[in-house]
């Protein structure tokens, strides 16, 4: 399964921190009902067994909505449960090695902060790039901020789709207009909201406006 630009319009990254009394399944379902077009399972502190369980469950859920489902960082889990792909950072396994491990048909996303990183990731077989943090964010402690100019330069330098990530909300997303992105990736702008379905729907509308 390869991803098209439209699949990357509203890319949701999970975060257990926001769950409260709810299950990951429930909140992801709500976000899919709101129109999320891509889901990444991001687990930093879950043991392998539970990670695998969550991954298998969410894969089935996303499949029912015909939405691509990828795993953050963990190539072995992605391989074991046959996810649609994987997203890796600059300090994780390099895109070429991921491709060799997962095969030609899986989606590989790579995080990039510079034009050089972006061009190299594309050359090594990345299908899309996640560029950020485009705004200050509390979701990632090590996030380096990327300027609008750099974001735009990256979009111009590569032919694969680029999504912006980091601190994006429905109130500031318009600032990314004209940059060349085909979508945004968010965590708290969806999963940190009281009404997840509405938050996703409103955000999707806002992104659509700046991309059309």
Could you explain how this protein is built, in words?
With 212 residues, this protein is of the alpha/beta class. The chain has a single domain (5-211), classed as Aldolase class I (TIM Barrel), CATH 3.20.20. 38% of the residues lie in helices and 17% in strands. It has eight helices and eight strands, in the order βαβαβαβαβαβαββαα. The chain has helices spanning 24-33, 48-64, 75-80, 95-102, 115-123, 148-157, 188-191, 196-211, and strands at residues 10-13, 38-41, 69-72, 85-88, 107-112, 128-132, 162-165, 183-186. It has an eight-stranded parallel β-barrel, surrounded by five helices. Helix 5 (115-123) links the parallel strand 5 and strand 6 (128-132). Helix 1 packs parallel to helix 2 and helix 1 packs across helix 8 (196-211). The model has no long low-confidence stretch (mean pLDDT 95). 2-[(2R,5Z)-2-carboxy-4-methylthiazol-5(2H)-ylidene]ethyl phosphate binds at residues 137-139, 167, 187-188. This is Thiamine-phosphate synthase. Mg(2+) binds at residues 73, 92. InterPro entries: Aldolase_TIM (IPR013785), ThiamineP_synth_sf (IPR036206), ThiamineP_synth_TenI (IPR022998), TMP_synthase (IPR034291).
């Amino acid at each position: 399964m390869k991803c098209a630009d439209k699949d990357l319009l509203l890319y949701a990254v999970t975060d257990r921190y926001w769950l409260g009394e709810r299950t990951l399944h429930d909140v992801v379902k709500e976000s899919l009902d709101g129109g999320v077009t891509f889901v990444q399972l991001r687990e930093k502190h879950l043991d392998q067994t539970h990670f695998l369980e969550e991954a298998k469950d969410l894969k089935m859920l996303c499949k029912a909505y015909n939405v691509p489902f990828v795993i953050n960082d963990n190539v072995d889990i992605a391989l074991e449960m046959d996810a649609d792909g994987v997203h890796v950072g600059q300090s994780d396994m390099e895109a070429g090695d991921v491709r060799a491990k997962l095969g030609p048909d899986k989606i590989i996303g790579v995080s990039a902060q510079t034009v050089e990183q972006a061009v190299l990731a594309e050359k090594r077989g990345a299908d899309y790039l996640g560029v950020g943090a485009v705004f200050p964010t509390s979701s990632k402690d090590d996030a380096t901020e990327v300027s609008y100019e750099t974001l735009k330069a990256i979009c111009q330098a590569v032919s694969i789709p680029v999504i912006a990530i980091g601190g994006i909300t429905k109130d500031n997303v318009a600032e990314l207009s004209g940059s060349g992105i085909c979508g945004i990736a968010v965590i708290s702008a969806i999963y940190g909201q009281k009404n997840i379905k509405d938050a996703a729907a409103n955000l999707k509308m806002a992104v659509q406006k700046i991309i059309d």
